[in-house]
């Protein structure tokens, strides 16, 4: 009670205003103490910045506008990449060129191997050509051989048959073709024995023109293998061939 402790209460009343004022001043003192530290840090960062930056940021706006018409013209020289070494650049070019050369060589090998797989084997190429002995074929007769799964007619023509084939007016033919364009020698005629209508095999030395006759639909070919009558649209095909000797023929 006040009667029992008057001196203590009096001392508390005297000290309380000072405590309140000190407590109120403490945040302000701390904030004030931070100002010199912040200013020192700012000054230190400004001193560490490049001289060009200090000049730009300290220059008036008119000076910046006069020297630099557009912000695109400002260059950050502080962060520019250093120039390359000429020796290293040459080495890099060498590595790049070598890599491209090796890549091109690898692609070339792959292409060669791929093309090689597409070409026929030697045994297949051997079957693609057929050698025929002509010495046993009599004049005026026709023999049939097999080449690539197709019949081939080899006819040894007489002089009369050659003259008859030469006398035909080519302009009147359905498939105009001269006799000289269908043979290499006048007396030898080589034809693929497949009718150009529907693929039947014509009969030799038959028909209205003494050449070949297709019994399937009645196509008539002359002694040069040209279509003369019937539904066939084209002449009998001439295969690739050559005379390797006077009495030997290579078909294919």
UniProtKB/TrEMBL annotation:
<dbReference type="Pfam" id="PF02921">
    <property type="entry name" value="UCR_TM"/>
</dbReference>
<keyword id="KW-1015">Disulfide bond</keyword>
<keyword id="KW-0411">Iron-sulfur</keyword>
<keyword id="KW-1133">Transmembrane helix</keyword>
<dbReference type="GO" id="GO:0008121">
    <property type="term" value="F:quinol-cytochrome-c reductase activity"/>
</dbReference>
<dbReference type="InterPro" id="IPR004192">
    <property type="entry name" value="Rieske_TM"/>
</dbReference>
<keyword id="KW-0479">Metal-binding</keyword>
<keyword id="KW-0001">2Fe-2S</keyword>
<dbReference type="InterPro" id="IPR017941">
    <property type="entry name" value="Rieske_2Fe-2S"/>
</dbReference>
<dbReference type="InterPro" id="IPR014349">
    <property type="entry name" value="Rieske_Fe-S_prot"/>
</dbReference>
<protein>
    <recommendedName>
        <fullName>Cytochrome b-c1 complex subunit Rieske, mitochondrial</fullName>
        <ecNumber>7.1.1.8</ecNumber>
    </recommendedName>
</protein>
<keyword id="KW-0496">Mitochondrion</keyword>
<keyword id="KW-0472">Membrane</keyword>
<keyword id="KW-0408">Iron</keyword>
<keyword id="KW-0812">Transmembrane</keyword>
<dbReference type="InterPro" id="IPR006317">
    <property type="entry name" value="Ubiquinol_cyt_c_Rdtase_Fe-S-su"/>
</dbReference>
<dbReference type="Pfam" id="PF00355">
    <property type="entry name" value="Rieske"/>
</dbReference>
<comment type="similarity">
    <text>Belongs to the Rieske iron-sulfur protein family.</text>
</comment>
<keyword id="KW-0813">Transport</keyword>
<dbReference type="GO" id="GO:0051537">
    <property type="term" value="F:2 iron, 2 sulfur cluster binding"/>
</dbReference>
<feature type="domain" description="Rieske">
    <location>
        <begin position="182"/>
        <end position="250"/>
    </location>
</feature>
<dbReference type="GO" id="GO:0005743">
    <property type="term" value="C:mitochondrial inner membrane"/>
</dbReference>
<keyword id="KW-0249">Electron transport</keyword>
<dbReference type="InterPro" id="IPR036922">
    <property type="entry name" value="Rieske_2Fe-2S_sf"/>
</dbReference>
<dbReference type="GO" id="GO:0046872">
    <property type="term" value="F:metal ion binding"/>
</dbReference>
<keyword id="KW-0679">Respiratory chain</keyword>
<dbReference type="InterPro" id="IPR005805">
    <property type="entry name" value="Rieske_Fe-S_prot_C"/>
</dbReference>
């Amino acid at each position: 009670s006040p009667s029992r402790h008057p001196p203590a209460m009096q001392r508390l009343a005297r000290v309380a205003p000072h405590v309140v004022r000190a407590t109120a001043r403490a945040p302000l003192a701390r904030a004030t103490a931070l100002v010199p530290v912040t200013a020192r840090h700012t000054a230190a960062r400004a001193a560490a910045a490049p001289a060009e930056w200090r000049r730009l940021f300290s220059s008036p706006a008119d000076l910046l506008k006069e020297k630099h018409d557009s912000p695109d013209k400002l260059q950050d020289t502080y962060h520019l990449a250093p120039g390359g070494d000429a020796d290293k650049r040459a080495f890099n070019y060498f590595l790049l060129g070598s890599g491209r050369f090796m890549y091109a060589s690898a692609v070339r090998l792959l292409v060669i191997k791929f093309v090689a797989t597409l070409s026929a084997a030697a045994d297949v190429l051997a079957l693609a050509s057929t050698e025929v002995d002509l010495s046993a074929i009599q004049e005026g007769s026709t023999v049939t051989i097999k080449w690539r799964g197709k019949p081939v007619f080899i006819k040894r023509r007489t002089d009369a048959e050659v003259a008859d084939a030469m006398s035909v007016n080519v302009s009147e033919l359905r498939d105009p073709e001269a006799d000289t364009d269908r043979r290499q020698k006048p007396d030898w005629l080589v034809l693929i024995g497949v009718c150009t209508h529907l693929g039947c095999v014509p009969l030799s030395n038959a028909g209205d023109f003494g050449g070949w006759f297709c019994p399937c639909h009645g196509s008539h070919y002359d002694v040069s293998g040209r279509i003369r009558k019937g539904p066939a649209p084209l002449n009998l095909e001439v295969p690739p061939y050559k005379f390797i000797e006077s009495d030997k023929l290579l078909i294919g």
